[in-house]
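Pilot study result, target chain (78 residues):
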Amino acid sequence: MPYNSKAFGTVLGRLRTEKGITQERFSAFAEIARSHLTMLENGKKVVRLDTFFRIADALDISPSELMRLVEQESGEEE
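Predicted structure:
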């Protein structure tokens, strides 16, 4: 299954929103620029592995769980 930046962005935005965290605050937790977070959520940027791990940590889930959710979302888009 190829990487799907749109699926990653959908999952990221949904999880962040469910936790009630603004982009500004979340970007500080994940140590990324808010503009970068916006591009990730919009599927316009490919997430790097180190950023993926920081995002999972900021969401308080394991990287494998985040990947599982992205893979699930990718399957639903097909």
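One observation from the pilot: DSSP finds five helices and no strands in the chain. A full batch analysis is planned for the follow-on phase.
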